[in-house]
Amino acid sequence: MALSDRRWPKFRQLKKPNRLPLLLLISLIAVTVLLIRQYDLEGHLTGTESEPLIRPSPPPTTCAEGESPPRPEEKKTVAEELCGVIKRGDTLSSLLGEYFNAHNLWRLAQDCEKIFPVRGLCVGQPYTLKLENGSFKCFIYEIDAEEQLLIGYANDRFAISKEAIAYQVERHVVVGTIEESLFQTVAQLGEGTDLACRLADIFAWDIDFARDLRQHDSFRVLVEKRYRDGVFAGYGALLAAEFVNQGDSYRAVAFPVDGEPAAFYDSNGRSLKKTFLKAPLAYSRISSGYSNRRLHPVLNVWRPHRAVDYAAPAGTPVMAVAGGVVVQRSYDKSNGNKVRLRHPNHYETSYIHLSRFACGIRVGSKVSQGQVIGYVGATGLATGPHLDFRAFKNGRPINPLKIERIPSSPLTEPYLSEFKLKAQEYFAFIDQQTASSACNR
Fold this sequence. Notes:
Distance between the termini: 156 Å
Oligomer: single chain
Largest sheet: 10 strands, antiparallel
Strand content: 25-35%
CATH topology of the largest domain: Nuclear Transport Factor 2, Chain: A
Structural class: alpha+beta
Mean pLDDT: 83
CATH class of the largest domain: Alpha Beta
């Protein structure tokens, strides 16, 4: 017990360890770590320039008096236009399949049905596809020379409309004298072939351009020329015309009645339109007439030829001589490509050896007088390009050149007075331009 009493007091008298050096060491290490981290953030240790922790404010932009401060740069929009023409086999799916899935294309076709059925895309018609940053913006299809179909897409919805094509229109007078053919004369004047076709269409009820045309016949035409962005884009309305054939003068003036498309009338307001055209071609020659006995040029046998053959260049447009319905559109080894039309009053006409059919000609479709139904060719048993034209009444063949052609009704008041003022205005302009051109020669 005595030993224990002697040792315990000595143990309680031991001094506490001095912790100050340890605290100083820990503090030094912590400061060193902080300094190393700060230097590393500023790029001194890594060798790269990192952004400082606190970014300095940009210096204030000074503007001259009256100027606006510069705007931040906006993202540029890249617009692109792809132009082309409808080719054989083209469909809405093949043209727009890159931008829409099958469901959207089906929905688009359904939406177009009431405005313009897209299954009616016609070979050769132009179209424009507009893109924005590679995405679909608009599709424009020219239905004909007058209207175009517009398809837009936004907010998962299609916007579809049919609009008139905008043109800049100027009036021109075209004057010519026939030397060989109407087609050649118009071409020598630097005009398009469709002007010759339209001129022949106007007088087709009174002049057979295959048989009646003579050298030194002449014509004068007042026509609208249309331009798009300063480029000639075809002919507009043909307002008035005069054709002198074998010394006889024929005049035509376009005049609309009750909102209907303009029809042509002579100087006295009598309609030029008759039930049948004189010929289904604008310019050609008769190579073989209607006959009960003719030597077939291919089969070399004698047989009836209940038709009139019009020799013309391949591709020449063939017109319906009267309004009607397509009852046959076929091909066989003898007739080649053939169209047969049914007209009022039990008449029918057929058009044989066509190179091809016009767009939209199908069995059951309606055609108007003067509408192009096909093009001259040499399909079937034919020695060269020509049109075999036939006519029937009550199912029996008749001579197409002897079809009864009944004129339409003339203008009556109050239209007649307005028509005569318009005719006077048009021909005064034609006379003025003709005299001016003669003085400038």
